[in-house]
Amino acid sequence: MLRRVLLGVSRSPQIKKAVSSLPVSSGIVARFVAGESAAEAVLATEKLVSNGLNVTLDHLGEDTTDLAAATATADAYLELLKQLGEAGLTQNAEVSVKLSAVGQALPGDGEKIALENARTICLAARNAGTTVTLDMEDHTTTDSTLGILRELRQDFPETGAVLQAYLRRTEGDCVDLAHAGSRVRLCKGAYKEPESVAFQNKQAVDKAYVRALKVLMNGDGYPMVASHDPRLIAIAGSLADRANRSPDTYEYQMLYGIRPDEQRRLAREGNTVRVYIPYGEDWYGYLVRRLAERPANLQFFARSLISK
Ligand code: FAD
């Protein structure tokens, strides 16, 4: 309930302005965001990789409504991939891209522009020796994002997909995407969605997550278990064992700043673990989704605003 209210309130321009004026180095922002520049993101990557973790980097920004901003985001990824390559990190670091940040929401040719920008990023990633995963956004974009994924995979079959367990359609999408070579990140889902398309309570979402994960683990693809939920992480391990999967045939993923001890514990036990690192100037939408997930984060956040 609180999560839905917060996601609604966050659309207010006044609230956005007040929160966005926080410096990125302030407590709550720095906990979840690695910095504003590619250099800071590379530094955070180096630290995690030296602790036996892998990363996926997200240049923050979404719902771009002008062409120049979409191009600038694509360029930011090219610069990031260049810096990751120079630092020798591309074996352990890939990138995550939101299609709305590279043009998907532009009127008219948006999908075509997003596809071309994503293609440019995929090519740069491949040349650098790494991969791209397409983040999933709100349900109005799911068909478009999966359509662009299909197009991209014709040339770049290594491109990862994201499916959200809270969507009623997701079990079926898992069946479609659980084929050999298909990297699929399964998360619960972070947007405010209507009941007609999404399960609303935690128990129903958790059950849907397990059903979807069973399909992925029993399939031939590469499941990416994106959750901090201790129960789901334990279930993922059991399902992988039952499907006779070795640790190089699936991975766990968590967000930067959330349960870092658990990230290291899983890696120490021989699992593949990837941390999702967001960076960039446009961190507001991302931060609000993280705050909405956990009431305890709000107290921390309120203290940041007061001490501003
Ligand atoms: P929850 O039930 O929310 O949390 C379980 C436990 O994890 C909590 O009890 C708490 O201990 C801890 N925890 C969870 N969230 C927080 C937090 N914010 N702060 C502190 N502790 C916390 N969503 C999308 O819609 N599209 C995407 O493309 C997408 N990509 C993702 C990529 C990765 C790698 C991950 C980990 C998540 C991604 N998400 C994405 C977000 C996801 O959908 C959930 O909103 C988020 O992961 C919280 O769900 P949970 O599975 O951790 O379970």
From TrEMBL:
Pfam families: Pro_dh
Record InterPro entries: FAD-linked_oxidoreductase-like (IPR029041), PRODH_bac_arc (IPR008219), Proline_DH_dom (IPR002872), Proline_oxidase (IPR015659)
One Gene Ontology term of the molecular function aspect: nucleotide binding
EC nos: 1.5.5.2
Annotated Proline dehydrogenase domain residues: 45-302
A biological process term (GO) from this entry: L-proline catabolic process to L-glutamate
Cofactor: record remark: Binds 1 FAD per subunit.
UniProt keyword Cytoplasm present: no
Keyword tRNA-binding: no
Gene3D superfamilies, per database record: 3.20.20.220
Pathway(s) where this gene product acts: Amino-acid degradation; L-proline degradation into L-glutamate; L-glutamate from L-proline: step 1/2
Catalytic activity: L-proline + a quinone = (S)-1-pyrroline-5-carboxylate + a quinol + H(+)
Residue positions binding substrate: K98, R289, R290
Keywords: FAD, Flavoprotein, Nucleotide-binding, Oxidoreductase, Proline metabolism
Residues bound to FAD: M136, Q164, K188, G189, A190, K202, S227, H228
Names of the cofactor(s): FAD
Protein's name in the database: proline dehydrogenase
Origin species: Kribbella italica
